[in-house]
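Memo to structure team: turn this sequence into structure tokens by end of day. - J.P.
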Amino acid sequence: ETAFTKVGWSTQVYTTTGSESLSDVVHQALAQDISLVVAAGGDGTITEVGSALAFSEVPLGILPTGTWNALAHNLGIPLVLEDALHLLTTSHRHMALDALKIGERYYLLNVGIGLSASIMQRTKRFQKRRFGFFAYIWNFLAQASGIRLQPLKVEVDGKEHRVKVSELMVVNASIIGLGELPTVLDIHPADGKVEIIGICAPDFFGFIRIGLGFLIGRRKAAPGFVSFTATRSILIRARKRMVVEADGDIIGRTPLEIYLVPAAVKVIIP
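Reply from structure team:
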């Protein structure tokens, strides 16, 4: 508020409680003819605010104060709060991000089924506040013995594929928020397409081997994954209902239908 007042902006500050609908909060603000919405928080908070701004001319400003801040990493937004504020109040540009529509909600990063959803389900809020990103690492290790291949039917733009995977990700931005890594896939949050990546690891050590090979961009060193590209829609079905996470939050169980919405949310970037 101090930073915005210095440049002559009139501001309203809303502090989240965790029990409200942020979509309603944002829509009430939009009705007041505002020119900018700034979200301070982690990826879950930021993407929920972004979802409410879909197709609005009002841009989203990001102050990354969460555990990992994957979206800020992807977009090159400064992680130091003062620098992120400076970006909003000085020269910048807008980027229209694609979104993954599930039901009435839009997500900006990724959707996961399998190991990632299990980790998100186990990682509690107090763990993230106390241990930060290491809370996810700890729960990943705790799930090591539970990694199993699961049969899935994945319909990509109307074409069905049958896969057996321990993790399936629908990825709109680089998986861990480090866009500069030379992964084997070219993933960008504003290119009108998403990648579906299945990791076919039968156990913990296979998962680590495939993951490392994928991250360093060595396709031959990581043969244990499958990938597809979608430009319209994705339908995922499993023999048994599986937990689904999106942008770091548990959102339900399979079956899951996702629609790609190009250029849905306008975001301020360097």
